[in-house]
Amino acid sequence: MTKKTLVTIKSMKRGTILKYSVLLSNAIQSKNYSLSELANKLEEFDVKIDKGYLSKLRSGTKSPASDRVNEALAKVLYIDPLELRIAAYKEKIPDDVLERLGNDFYE
After folding, report:
1. Thinking of the domain 32-93, which architecture would CATH place it in?
2. Nearby residues of 13 by Cβ (< 8 Å), 6 or more positions away
3. How far does Cα 3 stand from its chain's mean position?
4. Which of 19, 58, 78, 105 has the most CB atoms at less than 10 Å from its CB?
5. How far is CA 97 from CA 90, 94, 100, in A?
6. CB–CB of 17/83 below 8 Å?
């Protein structure tokens, strides 16, 4: 992966984590893939999901995908896999736990 094609959140200001759906949407747009094309490319990594599910992930109407799906998405879209997992985990952590973690979560 080159620095030009790698979609990452590291360049953002400290303490800011992109929403999973925003990170995914930006990556899909930067590669100029249709959801059908993306679904086909994911099959190369033994991940079989349809464009409807991808649409829900991209729009944020579905909670973030599993680690296995995220690993495949990262490879196909040239997203740093750890960045994608961080965004996914952050959305899965209950609000009260996030509040308790406070700024320590970002350090």
Report:
1. Orthogonal Bundle (1.10)
2. none
3. 17
4. 58
5. 10, 5, 5
6. no
